[in-house]
Amino acid sequence: MKNETRFDPDAELIVVNATIRGPRGSAVVRLAIDTGSAATVIVPDVLDEIGYSARDGTARTSVTTAVGKEHGFLLKVAEFEALGFTLTGFPVNVFELANRYGIEGLIGLNFLERFNYEIRSGEGRILVEKIAP
Amino acid sequence: MNAAEQLAPVITEALTWPQICEQYPDQWVCVVDIQWDEPRMFHFRNARVVGHGTTRREPLVHARPWRDRYPEIGHFFTGKIIAPFPRFFA
């Protein structure tokens, strides 16, 4: 089954909805698709509100940016839903992103690599299907 | 405005996304009761705002009193989404 998700082809980033479910509720956020990111990244504020904290982290991680190295942590969220698929116990990297970017994180390759996907930029469409086992 | 009024949870009437952007320009908002046209796309008929502010955290704090009644809360920025952002090299 191929799921289709639409995005704004005129925007600077490919941004899609994602729903993250935690022990205290769910957050619907907007994330940028980033095939240059090994990991899916979520800002800590959103995760705090649905019941996660650094105490739930399974490992410390770091990100190298233009201004240096920043530290975050790895966390498995109960459910992560994006592009028409829901993954349980999905690992995300928790890092701060500047407010001015207007997104709550990135969908990286640790999500995308589980699927075949086709980004049709001219049409503002992403077609995603699960890779057959 | 006294302290009790400042802390009183506020929820708007149902607003469309253009109305939300007009009332809270370049702000982060928390919305509940989202009437999605298509959940995988950012298209909804209307939603009710339970928090807003210039930082990500502000609306999330405003939205806390509503968490029990609305287990799903949307957290969105009303301004333009811009690149670049930090690259992740794990």
Largest sheet of chain B: 3 strands, antiparallel
Give the CATH topology of chain A: Cathepsin D, subunit A, domain 1
Roughly how much helix do the residues of chain B carry, as a percent range? 10-25%
Oligomer: heterodimer
The fraction of residues in strands of chain A falls at over 45%
Counted by DSSP, the helix tally of chain B is 3
Can you tell me the CATH superfamily of chain A?
Acid Proteases
- Our count of helices of chain A gives 2
CATH top level of chain A is Mainly Beta
Number of domains of chain B: 1
Uncertain segments of chain A are none
Q: Globular, elongated, flat, extended or rod-shaped: what is the shape of chain A? A: globular
Beta-strand percentage of chain B?
25-35%
Total beta-strand segments of chain B: 3
Number of strands of chain A: 10
Overall form of chain B: globular
The low-confidence parts of chain B are none
Mean pLDDT over all positions of chain B: 86
Question: How would you state the average pLDDT of chain A, rounded?
Answer: 92
Give a topology summary.
The complex is a heterodimer of chains A (133) and B (90).
Chain A: E1 2-6, E2 15-22, E3 25-33, E4 41-42, H1 44-49, E5 59-65, E6 68-82, E7 85-94, E8 105-107, H2 109-112, E9 115-120, E10 125-130
Parallel strand pairs in A: 3-8, 4-7
Antiparallel strand pairs in A: 1-10, 2-3, 2-6, 4-8, 5-6, 6-7, 9-10
Chain B: H1 3-7, H2 17-23, E1 28-38, E2 43-53, H3 57-63, E3 72-77
Antiparallel strand pairs in B: 1-2, 1-3
